[in-house]
Amino acid sequence: LTLAGAPAMAQTRIGLAVPGGETALLLEAQMRAGAQQAADDLDAELVIETDSCSAEGGGDAARRFVESDVE
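Given the sequence above, the corresponding structure tokens read:
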């Protein structure tokens, strides 16, 4: 319910950086499942980025989260 003239509340966006690639499929699936449960519990949107298990990939994922206004 939004009151007339009041700004709508933005939905919380939660970020998850996953390893990606063939070698981490089970780990990634577990990470996604846990993060999705947390997002559901908080009525938040889950935003997933791949970090490629590297410092550069992690930095890239973090920049994408910031650009997308992810908490």
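Helices lie at 25-42, 55-67. Try to locate this feature in the token string yourself.
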